[in-house]
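So, does this match?
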Amino acid sequence: MLSDALWGERGLFAAALPGWHERPGQRKLAAAVSRAIGERGILLAEAGTGTGKTLAYLVPALMHGERVIVSTATRALQDQLSRKDLPLASEVLGVQVRTAVLKGRANYVCHYRLKRAQSDGLLDTRRAVQELRRVARFAGTSVDGDLSALSGLDEHSPIIPLVTSTRDNCLGSDCPDYRQCFVMRARREALAADVVIINHHLFFANVALRDEGVAELLPSATTVVLDEAHQLSDIGAQFLGTAIGTAQAHDLARDILACGTQLARGLADWQSLSSRLQKAVRDQRLTAPMGQHRMDWGQAQALPGWRDALRQWQAELAALEVALDPFDALAPEFARLIARCREQRELLTSWQRDTAIEPDVSTAPPAAQEAVRWLEVGSHHLRLLATPLGIGAAFSALLAQRPQAWVLVSATLTLDGGFRYTRARLGLGEGSPALDAMEGVSAPRLRELRVESPFDYARQTRLLVPRTGFHPSDADHALHVADLAARLIAVNPGGSFVLTTTLRAIGRIAQRLRELLPPGRTVLEQASESKQVLLQRFSIDSRAVLVGSHSFWEGVDFPGDKLTLVVIDKLPFAPPDDPMVAARLKRLEAAGRNGFMDYSLPQAALALQQGAGRLVRSERDWGVLAVCDQRLVTTGWGKRLLASLQPFGRVQAVEEAMDFLVAHSHKPEAD
């Protein structure tokens, strides 16, 4: 199956793909995946950039001929798998494969909510009306209702919540459009498919809620592939906790107004009921400082007016339950609205309850240490969350339920050359009770594999780390970063990324670059436009500069000259005052461990690997990585981070990095 007939220089892939060449790491990974499938075991695999990991797991999975679930990090990667990688693998192997892509509800047009949005007359801008008309035309012709196929619709468009459903507002089988429902159609197709492509958000939503269409699929799959597995722990924590926010309350108020005026006009003051809840929610948001930040439970309680505003929010929800009760039997919509009021009120009560204050982790039993309550404040909203400190117990218990093959693969899973940190986060560490129980149930074999990138980093790249003048605590650090970046950008023949660790630094660096760079040089700035638009503009401008933070550190792929310079402002340590970070550090230190070395440093290493990984995506790529943080080369722990990176060619002076860029600008292969 994995012989030269398939992978070799004259094999099937070489015949199907012009320019194909043997990648020993790809064949090695494919062999390990095949073994895991045959053993119904668990494989942790780090596959360096350029290994070709997607084909390495798809080929053995398809050749085993049983149902496969592939979960990846984003919807964009889902589309790439379904439209490019999977058709290629099945064509080369000559196998017929029924494929289904399953996404969350918010990706599909809801016929019922679309009709209601068209009739309620609540849109207040011409653009919103035009977008609604476009969605309506799309829904009338689309086979699957997936809004990603509607070009020009911004992923943050205010229209989307009006024309899609959520778990809260879906009427299920009571919906008059149930038989035509795009979500139900996608689920049916997934249940009949050989290969189902989902994303991690959907995967964990189903683990937590069992209500998004994957719960029925997991037991029937022989193999589950979790690509981009380095994101599992963080994404899983989002869904294994609870959350209630002002956006949910505004949606509820809007739905009460629309449903009441359409189905029970004149029987209640629907405008007043809706407005009172919206006012309570706005008052709650105004108790928190403006801007985007996070606060722990105690900090939220100390906000002036917080407790009174929260009591009023709860009171309005309770009043709505009473007001809606007489209409319970009138239509399924009212029963669902009553349930939503009750669920939101209960979540608020649980989050606020004084007796539920987090215990001292040094004395509390393990079960009581798992959740942290915190507040996420946005520009126009806030969310009250209770998040588990880890997903290890829940994740390993899931793997223990039945004999299946689980393949966890990513370009960044190891630290100091080993998987110990990743195993601990996923509940697969040595001596873990969950792992012991799993072995007792299904006798899985847990194997590890690390495959190096085939790229010649010493030849293709240069890494610049200034030894002096770049310490993040300096008040003018962002300006120093911009000055260095401007010198490199000025001679860079391709595109440039400046990646920051904070949102605050973006504006300062972008503004300084506009002052230093020649007129006409495009400087794109995160939050000025949607991510989708920014990436599109960057791709069509051959020498554009993009300044962005966390969302641009991974999952962004610009091969060739489209991206030949990556500047990182400082080492990506999570802020220690972040509620989740602080709680994790406290738990480690209470157990006698070093929070910095055992959590902060490993997290920074994985994030740094992802940011650096934007630079080289193929054998022909080249470029300069500049990390503007002298601690990377002047501290002992910094050298651990440095060792976690790919073996970049090193330079010590800015002029050397500039010379490398200039030299490549004159090479034919850089054109």
Summary: Residues 630 and 643 are 15 Å apart (CA to CA). The two ends are 39 Å apart (CA to CA).
